[in-house]
């Protein structure tokens, strides 16, 4: 109880965290029922207990991260960025393969896997926020202001792209948006976007010429399926998601009554939003969307009220990437975007994604806590003295 009394930071963001965690438990339990019955000999609660444990650990991480003064994250940003590079290189060379992609490192003693891209995303956002805050006086200078910020972003995106193009594009777009907010000239950003498109084209060409598989076939297939359908048909995942969404109606079938979960690949991660719409209808879908939009609005409020550049950029940058990731997942589920492996933050079943999403939210709340303390001191200082 004493720990709860010490909880500070934006109360709306705390409410969003608890609400999404509750939704996650309901959705994961529903979407993994058949999987648990087949894979765990009828122990249908296995994945529920696993997700409950992860979310509990995530809440602890949020609590302790928000108690840390956010300026400390500025000191570890460069270390995190430098550690991310060898970790991503190791993952590409020796990482565990899943769906023909090397995204995971397996820890030998505890036999657990985690995505190194999750570490890299968090580290690069802290690093970019640090650099933007330090380079504001020379931000319009290409060599002194722009290159020290964008080169590390390019390195991380290049190392993530061969195994996970959607994450690399998401990370690059989020960093570009943060740079735009940080007053980086638009001509520099447009140049980097053009360079990124050229790089993607060159990677496709390289794979075609050399025959080296870099998941380009998977990317091409997904793009073709989205633009005209594979063999002029809607992809199987999208078909099943559409069936579930169409049957959800306004208020859905109710918890645990999904039928699409028995046919959808990865209904507990990539397509969990379709399960939520089927069981809770358009009303439930709107509530989830509103939560992420509210998270972004509260982070913008923190950005406006934070007197220090690093904290302002850090809170807004982390929230932007979480919201963009959520919108991408929702867009895929409802057929607005090509199929990707992007999960729904704090809702999809996962390991490292839950942990690092929780750490990101804890950092946002750390900035919020410091802002509240500064505002509180100012209010006390400005209290008129009684005559």
Automatic annotation (TrEMBL):
It is found in: Membrane. It comes from the Bacteria. Keywords: Cell shape, Glycosyltransferase, Membrane, Peptidoglycan synthesis, Transferase, Transmembrane, Transmembrane helix. Its EC number is 2.4.99.28. It is a multi-pass membrane protein. The keyword Transmembrane helix applies. InterPro entries: FtsW/RodA (IPR001182). The chain crosses the membrane at residues 12-31, 46-65, 72-93, 145-163, 193-212, 271-296, 308-327, 347-367. It catalyses: [GlcNAc-(1->4)-Mur2Ac(oyl-L-Ala-gamma-D-Glu-L-Lys-D-Ala-D-Ala)](n)-di-trans,octa-cis-undecaprenyl diphosphate + beta-D-GlcNAc-(1->4)-Mur2Ac(oyl-L-Ala-gamma-D-Glu-L-Lys-D-Ala-D-Ala)-di-trans,octa-cis-undecaprenyl diphosphate = [GlcNAc-(1->4)-Mur2Ac(oyl-L-Ala-gamma-D-Glu-L-Lys-D-Ala-D-Ala)](n+1)-di-trans,octa-cis-undecaprenyl diphosphate + di-trans,octa-cis-undecaprenyl diphosphate + H(+). Belongs to the SEDS family. FtsW subfamily. This is Probable peptidoglycan glycosyltransferase FtsW.
